[in-house]
Amino acid sequence: MAIDTLIAMTALPPPSLHVPRWRLLTAWLFLFLMALAIDQIWVHLWRIVPIGYATTRLTEPISSNGGVNYVRALNQLACKGVTGGNNAAVLLIRAVGPGQFPERTWYGKNILRQLDMPPFAPGASRLISLSDWIEKHPLPANSSRDARRRMELRLGSEPWTATNYPVIAQWIRANNRPLLLLAQATRRPRYYVPLESPDHGLVHARVPLLRPLTRLTSVAAMRGMLRLGQGNIAGATRWANRIHRLAVLVMQAPDVVSYLVGLRFENIAMRMFQAVANSGRLSVKQLDALSHSVESLAELPPLTEALNDQRYTGLSMLMMLDQNGLMILRIHHVSRTEKEFVNAIFPIDYAAMMRRENRIFDKEVAAAKRTDFLEECREMQRLKNVIDGYASPLRVALNPADIAVVLANPAAVHIASYRRGAAVIRCLTEVAIALAQFKLVHGSYPAALADLVPGELKSPPIDAFSGGPFQYAVTSDRRGFRVKSHGPPPGVGGWRLNADMAPFITARGGNWPAAQR
Prior knowledge:
This protein has 517 residues and is mainly alpha-helical. The chain has helices at 2-11, 21-46, 70-78, 88-96, 106-114, 130-136, 145-155, 166-174, 176-185, 210-229, 233-250, 256-277, 284-295, 303-324, 336-345, 350-368, 373-389, 393-398, 402-407, 412-442, and strands at residues 471-474, 480-484, 506-510.
């Protein structure tokens, strides 16, 4: 019986291992939801950016969403010690007037309110632009927009008279009040225009005074060169000094755009000083006074301040990404769906990105303090190559937030070239004055710049770009000269000076042929 039972049992089919499909789906769904929950916890924890020096660099004030309000933070730093009586921006806003300053926009109203300035009165005076003026007072028929632009640049750096340009002289006379306010503003020690942003981020911060202020500076330069054409040496020198002081003031603003605009104003002032020196109308005593005036000019703020301003812009952008997601980024080769998916699923360590951002800027600031321009550029170019690596399609596809590092880090090597260029132009101005002094005493320009030492210059002039001497050439009769900077070394990153600065790194005088300019 037992044997029969055993045989029967061995004949039975094996027990079924089939699991119902609904159970498998339930198990997989459970595992997926568990993984998603863990991922969301991970994503949330990584997006908590600790406030501190290594990450946000600035630690207050804190906005309602828990992040650093960089706009308010920089405004608080910039406005320390500023009053209505020492702030040049108050007079400059009044100088450009309604229409030029956007007083009817939300940010214009906020700026006026924070500066305790009343709205413009009806009929208040304002800066008249050249385009508005020539609508009622036409220039010669062949004056295209480009021709007018070239004319503005020329009349702001060379002496001229009202006889040759009567319409321009009338236009400058019509802007007497804005110019008077500009002159008063440059006697003040501080410059503060509060930053305004719709989202409290520096990326969209508005600096509305710079554009009309650039127009006003152009008018001031032409007024100075008109004074020089009239033989008023003191008047021309005063306007050059005013534009220089305006440059120093504007560069106090906590944004890199104002820093670059200030450098442009400084270059305009130096060209005006060169025009005064090369006018052939100064006595030995006047040239000595001009030389002393240029040597005693205030130093421009260092490049490190502009780099730190840009650092805060980058950190502000990362903070906005952390709080608002990747949708604020405009990346052409990454779709909206992909950004939404990455933003929701992928854990992005914004704190680590901020620490990386600070390390890059710390290295750029250290490079900006080097005296050798070639070494400075090589280090900044190396950092630029590192930053550009974050913009590779593969890297952006895996982490679109990396593009923020690229957007927030414009090539510091270019900003460094503008700052170094300003130093070169000031040195060229001192050389041009020394050459005018030499010619007035000896009747001709020297055969070499070394002949200016020790009489007119204390030491041989050095080109801050190359670290060597300037290129110097004289006409055959030694009554015309050209002093030219070598410019940035061509092998450094393949970049070049901005077209606006290129004409400034050459000084000319005497009867140097116009065709060779």
